[in-house]
Amino acid sequence: MPGQLKGALFSAAVMLVLAVPILGIQITTEGSSVSLVGELHYAFIAAGLVFVFKLLERPLSTLLGMTHAANLLPSADRMATYRPAILTVLIVLAFIWPFTASRGAVDVATLALIYVMLGLGLNIVVGFAGLLDLGYVAFYAVGAYSYALLTEYFGLSFWISLPIGAGLAALFGFVLGFPVLRLRGDYLAIVTLGFGEIIRLLLNNWDELTGGPDGIGNIPKPTLFGLEFTRTAKADGNIPFHEFFGLEYSGTYRVIFLYLLALLLVLFTLFVINRLIRMPVGRAWEALREDEIASRSLGLNPTNIKLSAFTLGASFGGMAGCFFAARQGFINPESFTFIESAIVLAIVVLGGMGSQIGVILAALALTVLPELARQFEEYRMLVFGLVMVLMMIWRPQGLLPSKRPRMELPT
Amino acid sequence: MSENGLQFVQQIINGLTLGSIYALIAIGYTMVYGIIGMINFAHGEIYMISAYVGLIVITGLSMMGIEYMPVVLIITLTMAMLITSAYGWSVERVAYRPLRGSPRLVPLISAIGMSIFLQNYVQLAQGARNIALPPLISGGWRFGDAAGFQVYLSYMQVMIALATTAAMVGLTLFIGRSRLGRACRACSEDRGMANLLGIDTDRVIALTFVIGAALAAVAGVLVGLYYGVVNPFMGFIAGLKAFTAAVLGGIGSVPGAMLGGIVLGLTESFTSAYLSTEYKDVVSFGLLVLILLFRPTGLLGKPDVEKV
After folding, report:
1. What is the ipTM for the molecules in this complex?
2. How far is A329 from chain B (nearest CA, A)?
3. Which of A98, A311, B27, B240 could form a disulfide with A173 if both were Cys (CB 3.0 to 4.6 A apart)?
């Protein structure tokens, strides 16, 4: 105990050194004069918290060790029997839910579904293939700008732009990935980060094409087989949805339609990825992630396999971007900063790399929780950062790690 | 000299100033990478924190009535180096040490989390806006033709060059001559072997983080004084640039980081002068991508062979 007390005192003292200048003293500017305001109590509170935490660290970890997270969830074998039934019920509920919920809730859910799409796409790259991509937002941006530009310059509809946007993002992924994927993991991370920044800077500075920092506005919303969700039809010959069905005009239809569309896109993404990971290429991704040298000696071509993961991940990012542009109706480079990449990465890490259910739940949690706790909005990124560090220390495999059939040699 | 020639000289001066700053930050990346083979993503944030600490110390001193420049500068640098080193040490202790021996991506993700955390921590504590610093060292020399273009060399730029040189010489002597420096070199050569020979590798790793943070502190304080503005987001881009410098010079090599910083600083100042200011970041990141593709070992780095 005395040793623990000494350690706790030491940690608290270090915390005090760290917190006093930044947290404890605030710089205030009035006109041109700068002065300091002491808020030392914050620093002392922080040090006190560290002290208490350090004292309780050992008893706490033993306590946590007893209630292992695996015991809290029903075992995988029992889940497997009911799996199709549970999934069907969940999907049906997800389709019925928007008709009973409020307009605001449906809107938030749509945003959450975009992040689910992004999370699932990045999960291919980070989770399955084990390539850390810090510039994923670049593909999201490519998708969003493809739709915005295609509709502005060529008048193409959402439904035509969606595959083109996904394809263009995939092309970008391919062209970038081709030279870069030879690099080792951490170099790859930095290069993709640099690439993400380059794309954002280009969008910001290429005023003639992208509108620069002002972005592109008036992006048309998707239509349902030519039916528009506006009060009066914008394009010639189109009929608004409510007139076609003889309903009263209401903006809610559009919100619900966008939600259902996002849900369909997510289901499509899930379907494709689930097929892929059972195919040889999917197996190869995971083999490569586990041991590159071993896979190479078994005759797998690492560049091609990584490239396929990178390109596919990018195409889902592009698809999500297209939908994002259509939903917002307005895009500018501000929506595609590194922070977005970090949020999507946090989703994948929190959910458990390679675990699709985990990624979906994490995406829903990380977008819906901040909406519910609006007054804590400014703490959102702080908590994200902290969660990423703590997850790596306590559960690097994620909250719901993917389960694979495996055999182990008896020891 | 012709006007073009003077313009050229001016860009060299600006580039060397910027390059010294990058070099100071890059050393933190390169030393950590050399010893534990990880990219300390939070290093840019450490540099940002040091700029804030510097600002707070200068303001505090001026509130106490101490305004004599050399005293203020020495106290500010010392305080910033001490407190920033404490940050570097704590980041290693909290976010990286528990992850030693895990797969490569795990500490990297933890470092990204740490970087986001620190950036938002400073933003919440000090506000997201730009804060202006009162100029501590103003004035400079002007050369050239009185009527046409004049080359301007500010005292601050000379100060940056002097401080950087002093820090580099100090570091080179420390690594080359001292007992701990020898332990550092041994660890970067072969950590397992160094451990077997009785070197406390955990201590050496902590020391690298402290040295890196102290040099970043010098850079942070100088940049704060040079540009006169600090904000919580300055660390992200600067960190990325410094990492580019480290890779350019050959990651893991300390003289390489110095060279890489200077080369990058010059590239950037020439790009903004002769090409376009908006695209200077694009050129730097493009440079990073190109080096990694064609010469991943950088200018002075050693090739690194992957073994089973």
Report:
1. 0.83
2. 27
3. A311
